[in-house]
Design goal:
By secondary structure, this protein is an alpha/beta fold. Helix content is 47%, strand content 15%. A six-stranded parallel sheet has the order 4-3-1-2-9-10. It has a four-stranded parallel sheet with strand order 6-5-7-8, with helices on both faces. α4 runs antiparallel to α16 and α8 packs across α10. The protein is globular, with a radius of gyration of 20 Å.
Length: 336
């Protein structure tokens, strides 16, 4: 009876929660989390074009366990990478990227019936609203662009006049969604520097602490700093790829070695997980049972599971364990 009463009380919060969740959505996308919060047991899916989104799932697992909003949470990481030889950035046209990601989303929804989908990938987030799945989605789908832009805007209020460097994949930078939304918020164009980082995500997956990864980050930081119009301005470096946070220590060391003053590394991964935490419903249950699984149509090497597992274990042991015993499903979704 106690749980029933709690759920009835939660119903009165649906409108408020829906409105507050909508503030994090893009203008063309209305997000209603009311039905999600009304359930005692939920399935939360995280998808990415690789393994960067596991950081989002780990953050979500940790925060959901602490918040105790649900009786149980089943976390599913759906790897939307279709080939270890090529990824979304290697596809020739935008239409191809959209079609492949749409196929992955359709399969995810059909096979795992999630109550919410978190797109733990900036590359896929900028493509999402162009997919047929977006137009027909019956469950909430949250992308990375909004949280990333909000984080930058918050920091700019604290440090006005700072230069903003956006580090991301070729597709993320080429689509220009982060820059567009920053301009809409009143950020001056001359403040924004964009820096594509080809192959960096792959190097980080193999070994987020390696010398090769460090050298690649160093080269991209040098390229970006060379574009600054005011070298004396404070720098806000935004990591608009979920992979990049695994190597946060390297990013900090590289910027420090360049003598950049008042710099800050902005990693929106934690902010993404925060979106699904309702402060109004905290401690609704005595405890939250967390389960996690990782599914992939491509093999994940032992080198990658070891490299990322060490980082994930510190945030969420459940996520690290799920990666170590991931489920290989070659027919996970169609892409050819």
């Amino acid at each position: 009876m106690k749980n029933v009463a709690l759920l009835i009380a939660a119903g009165f919060l649906v409108l408020i929660l829906s409105l507050s969740a909508g503030q994090s959505a893009t203008k063309s996308q209305v997000i209603d989390l009311g039905s999600f919060y009304s359930k005692p047991d939920v399935t939360v899916a995280v998808t990415d074009s690789g393994l960067g989104g596991l950081a989002i799932m780990a953050e979500a697992a940790s925060q959901l366990a602490e918040a105790r909003i649900f009786r149980s949470v089943n976390l599913v990481f759906f790897n939307a990478l279709f080939s270890n030889e090529s990824g979304y950035n290697s596809l020739k046209t935008r239409e191809e990227k959209i079609a492949v990601f749409n196929s992955a989303l359709e399969s995810l929804a059909q096979k795992y019936r999630p109550d919410i989908i978190l797109i733990g990938c900036n590359t896929l987030s900028v493509l999402y609203e162009k997919t047929p799945f977006f137009k027909a989605a019956k469950i909430p789908v949250l992308g990375m662009v909004g949280p990333g832009v909000d984080l930058i805007a918050e920091e700019l209020k604290r440090h006005p006049g700072s230069a903003v460097i956006l580090f991301g994949t070729e597709t993320t930078i080429g689509e220009g969604e982060h820059k567009k939304k920053l301009l809409e918020k009143g950020v001056k164009e001359e403040q924004i520097i964009t820096q594509a980082c080809p192959e960096l995500a792959n190097y980080i997956e193999k070994d987020c602490k390696s010398d090769d990864t460090g050298l690649l980050i160093e080269s991209y930081v040098e390229e970006a700093l060379a574009k600054t119009k005011n070298p004396a301005a404070p720098v806000l470096a935004s990591l608009v790829c979920t992979h990049y946070g695994y190597s946060l220590d390297i990013w900090n060391k590289v910027f420090e070695s360049r003598g950049v003053k008042s710099f800050a590394i902005l990693n929106p991964n934690s902010k993404m997980a925060e979106i699904i935490i309702s402060t109004k419903l905290k401690n609704r249950f005595a405890a939250t049972a967390i389960q996690a699984k990782v599914v992939s149509m491509v093999e994940i090497s032992r080198q990658k599971t070891d490299s990322l597992g060490e980082w994930l274990r510190k945030v969420s042991p459940e996520t690290a364990a799920a990666l170590a015993k991931y489920e290989l499903k070659p027919e996970l979704f169609e892409w050819k």
